[in-house]
Amino acid sequence: MTAQIAESLRHRGKVCSLWTLPLESFLDRPNNRKAFAKVHRHTACFRGYVGYWEISDNKLLLTGVETLDGENFPLHSF
Fold this sequence. Notes:
By secondary structure, the protein is mainly beta.
């Protein structure tokens, strides 16, 4: 199996890999995955996107979503 591209996590000024997929539980709800229906997928990223996260005030915040094609999804679409 091919290793998957990690999510990105910023915390205390450092950027590191996040090897979990916090957005997936939201996308598994009915109709929430529609935005990614035509997204290019790759063996290194079956989900077709990379989420960008940060920890602020002890909360995990989604700061951006980018597809493998380089398209940025506006956060209000989620």
